[in-house]
Amino acid sequence: MKMANEVGFSLLEVLVTLSVLAILLSLSVPTMHSLLAKKNEEKILERMENDILYIQNQAIGSTKNFRIILQENKYIIVGPDQQSIIRDLPSNWTLDRRKLDSISYNENGTIRKAGTISLKTPNNTYRYVFPLGKGRGYLEKQ
């Protein structure tokens, strides 16, 4: 019995279409992976900046001592009643704290101890500089 209306795609047309889609997807995966790593890096750096701003704001006009203690693969935000928040860095990141081991501010918003922190990620190296004065520091990409 012969069909009067044959509609549809042949097997060859479907295979060609699927192979073109597979090639396009295989080209986009490495780009997506590097974009995801970059966004993750930006998110972690932004969180660290917000934590530094937080302890500076808590210190202004207060006698309470908020500080950030730096370690090789994490930093710890310590409040006046010794409650702490631990912020782990990714395992392939390192925090060089030879020049500055903690961050804290006076009650007028100035840094107690000026210094520099080096932060190494798999793709980049950053320096967090804390000069004397009221600023909370700034981030430099190396």
Automatic annotation (TrEMBL):
Keywords: Competence. InterPro entries: ComGD (IPR016785), N_methyl_site (IPR012902), Pilin-like (IPR045584). Coiled coil: none annotated. One of its GO terms (cellular component) is cell surface. GO terms for biological process: establishment of competence for transformation. It comes from Ornithinibacillus bavariensis. It is found in: Cell surface. This is Competence protein ComG.
